[in-house]
Amino acid sequence: MPTSVKSDVRASSAAISASGLRKSYGDKTVLDGINLHIPVGSVFALLGPNGAGKTTAVKILSTLIGADGGQAQVAGHDIAVAASSVRAAIGVTGQFSAVDGLITGEENMLLMADLHHLPRHEGRRVTAELLERFDLVDAAKKPASTYSGGMKRRLDIAMTLVGNPRIIFLDEPTTGLDPRSRHNMWQIIRGLVSGGVTVFLTTQYLEEADELADRIAVLNDGKIAAEGTAEELKRIVPGGHIRLRFTNPAAYRAAASALTEAAPDDEALALNIPSDGTQRELRSILDHLDALDIEADELTVHTPDLDDVFFALTDKTNVPNPSRHAKENVR
Fold it and tell me: Confidence class of residue 282 from pLDDT cuts 50, 70 and 90?
């Protein structure tokens, strides 16, 4: 994953924190005591199968519904006792667009400015700036019903930004978009974070979380099944290995004899060594080969991807097949 995508998550202050958050509907427990700590200026992705409680978590943290137990703070405000302060600090874009198709894009923006009680001249200024920022100037005077899915999503987020929120909840923002529009949306999200905005993202697109998120949590059966960076999560699934390839058959045979834990591939003159790909393991293997004056021509690290992590954590009837989605990072 490109390091340029990620924001700096070293900030100690939390934009969003939650402890023991619970929510049930009848006898169905949707959230069963989840804990969260999301630093300012970071992207946090919440993954989970349909019905796992992702949208419920967003609704609670954005004060749209109340929790049955636990506590949470958003932008430093308790969601239970300072809901109006929370709402003033956040923006929310749901998986279904809030755009009114009967009016123009510009009118949608101006309506949002009115809802935020902006003075008329300020509302027009903000509207013009955001329409330009999201490449919607040419379509501004057209009914939103004529917009493509990607344009509606851009307008939706532009409307969310009218109030200049520092925390944005994006609930499956790229659902239904084609790959090009999805990548355009990723660029928008990256731009928001580079401006200091904190993004709470729910998604079913694992590639999306891998590309954008500083930290990822997997929600299953109402609980956080695992949380960490993408690389940390990938290491919890077995199947990672280091692959050494040789062009010299003698060097290959010598390495195979020295690395007894490796699985040989005689046809490719390659060795697969079980590993989680840490720097320490890489150094240990290379130092061992150097001591024997054996040199590999190619070294690659294969790690399970988020698909494997997702299946392993959310579907106990499925045995993950890490090799099916193995990623290669040439060193």
Answer: confident
d(CA 181, CA 198): 22
Per DSSP, the three-state class of 326 is: coil
Q: Any bridge partners for residue 216, and if so which?
A: 45, 228
Cβ atoms 314, 220 nearer than 8 A: yes
Q: What are phi and psi of 96, to 5 degrees?
A: -115, 130
Q: How much is the pLDDT for 278?
A: 75
Instruction: Report pLDDT digits (tens) over 104-121.
Output: 999 999 999 999 999 999
Q: 72 with 60: CB under 8 angstroms?
A: yes
The confidence score (pLDDT) of residue 311 equals 85
Evaluate whether 59 touches 66 at the Cβ level (below 8 Å). Answer: no
Q: Which residues contact 40 (CB under 8 A, 6 or more apart)?
A: 11, 13, 14, 15, 166, 196, 198
pLDDT digits (tens, 9 = 90+) for 162-188: 989 999 999 888 887 888 888 888 998
Instruction: Please tell me the total number of residues recorded for the chain in this structure.
Output: 331
Name the amino acid, one letter, at 223: K
Tokens of 39: 């630093």
